[in-house]
Specification:
Blueprint lengths: L4 H12 L3 H7 L4 H9 L5 H11 L5 H7 L7 H31 L1
Helix pairs in contact: 2-3
């Protein structure tokens, strides 16, 4: 996966509506250092963690998603799938009762 992390960071800075100078202050770096970061294709994970925190964006996710391994099962999705299956069974049961009731009316 080819990801230019500096460009992704720059997009998020703009989306957050903050200046590069303000961003530099928040990550305790100089404005020039920020310019250097935005040119990078890769970045130290500790710095990326700090940037993720400041911009409230998970910059690790694109990397994690590209691996496709060791992903814990999303319990929310699993629970919703179970609930959906249960509701389908209930609807089927109610349809059967409705059919029987219609037959008894005849």
């Amino acid at each position: 996966m080819k990801l230019h992390i500096g460009k992704e960071i720059e997009k998020q800075i703009k989306l957050n509506g903050i200046s590069k100078s303000e961003f530099a202050r928040r990550i305790a770096k100089s404005r020039q250092n920020v310019e250097d970061i935005l040119k990078r294709e890769s970045i130290d994970s500790a710095l990326l963690y700090k940037i993720s925190s400041v911009l409230k964006f998970d910059f690790f996710e694109p990397y994690s998603n590209s691996l496709g391994i060791n992903k814990p099962e999303d319990s929310t999705t699993t629970n919703k799938d179970k609930e959906l299956e249960s509701l389908k069974k209930e609807i089927s049961y109610l349809e059967e009762i409705n059919t029987l009731l219609k037959k008894n009316k005849k």
